[in-house]
Amino acid sequence: MKSFYKQVTCFVGLTGFLINFNTECLNAATFVRINSGFGILNRLDDYSSIDGYAPASRPKNSNLYGINIGYKFQNNVSLDFFYKKFDKFKYSAKDNAKYFYSQNIGISSYTINAQYNFENNSKIYPFARVGIGLSKNKLGKYNAINRGDKSKEYALNSNTSNNFTFNVGAGIGYRINDKLAADFNYQYHDLGEIK
């Protein structure tokens, strides 16, 4: 039995969108950045299997957590390693007949990113980011429930796949002092496919 998702997100064919808030602790040329925000998956394509069908639906938003460890080559150029964890997108849908479908989607991504700060001798500065890496996408158990008697019609076991991922984004940063900064950014993140 196989199901297939393909799509593009502000992080997830998965594609998504990520709204992100960061705080950054600066120490000479190295830095650590703590991230929190939320991811918005785009609508999942219809998919079918030998045993069933589920309608297209956009999963509920996911909380996002992450950490960057990086190095500043100049005041305006940096490179970092970024680990991001999406706290389970939740897919659910109802068809026109009598079935309810549900499944969790868990995502972790590991990327190397470059950032360019547009310096303007101000505490507030715009920046652009781009990155590539690996996305680990996990589908939880897929369930189809009869809405009439609540019986489980069928289920698919969980599945994990590794995918190439890339992201592009932009944001606004604010220097709180010489050692601490915060920023708000938006990223488009293609997390590959889930099968």
Explain how this protein is built.
The strands form 2 sheets. The protein has an 8-stranded antiparallel beta barrel with strand order 1-2-5-6-7-8-11-12. A two-stranded antiparallel ribbon has the order 3-4. Strand 1 and strand 2 form a beta hairpin. The radius of gyration is 19 Å and the shape is elongated. It is an all-beta fold and 195 residues long. It has no helices and 12 strands.
Structural class: mainly beta
Compressed to H and E, one letter per element, the order equals EEEEEEEEEEEE
What is the total tally of β strands? 12
Radius of gyration: 19 Å
Main sheet summary: 8 strands, antiparallel, barrel
Range of strand content: over 45%
The helix content is: under 10%
> Any low-confidence stretches, pLDDT <50, length ≥5?
1-19
Mean pLDDT: 78
How are the strands of the biggest sheet laid out side by side? Answer: 1-2-5-6-7-8-11-12
- Report, as a whole number of angstroms, the end-to-end distance: 11 Å
| DSSP helical segment count | 0
Question: How would the global form be characterised?
Answer: elongated
Summarize the entry for a quick read:
The protein has 195 residues and is mainly β.
